[in-house]
Amino acid sequence: MDDRERHEAGMTVRRQVLGDAHVDRAIAGTDELTADFQDLITRYAWGEIWTRPGLDRRTRSCVTLAVLATLHHDEELAMHVRAALRNGLTSHEVSEVLLQVGVYAGVPAANRAFKVAREALRQEDQ
């Protein structure tokens, strides 16, 4: 797959996982400073990693939630909580992932992540 095909595949998956509204905002906010970064994440995060056959999207969402919660990347965590729902996870399964984070990454990380997830889920219900 060449870079153009990888970008197209990445954009398709990115829209499916994050939703058109989010992707459209990211594209609209792209400028000279961020254009290369947007291309990079579309081609590699979405077009290379999220398209791999080794894990399904539900599993990729679980891994992503755990890593983002552990590293305290709250904005990305909120975005990926909403994405996890699009990928078929229930709010209960999101909770299970965050409980796992509590045991392996620490209670403070999980506590913070639950707060972020609660707000993201509340916004999703509106």
Give a description of the structure.
With about 130 residues, the chain is mostly helical. It is about 80% helix and about 0% strand. It contains seven helices and no strands. The chain has helices at about 5-20, 20-30, 35-50, 55-70, 75-85, 90-105, 105-125. The mean pLDDT is about 95.
Helix/strand layout:
Blueprint: H1 3-18, H2 20-28, H3 35-49, H4 57-70, H5 74-86, H6 91-105, H7 107-125
Largest sheet: none
Gyration radius over CA: 15 Å
Annotation, overall tally of beta strands: 0
Shape: globular
Q: Low-confidence spans: pLDDT under 50, at least 5 residues?
A: none
Task: Indicate the multimeric state.
Answer: single chain
How large is the count of helical segments?
7
Give a short synopsis of this structure.
The chain is mostly helical and 126 residues long. It has seven helices and no strands. The termini are far apart.
Question: Features of this protein?
Answer:
globular; 126 residues; mainly alpha
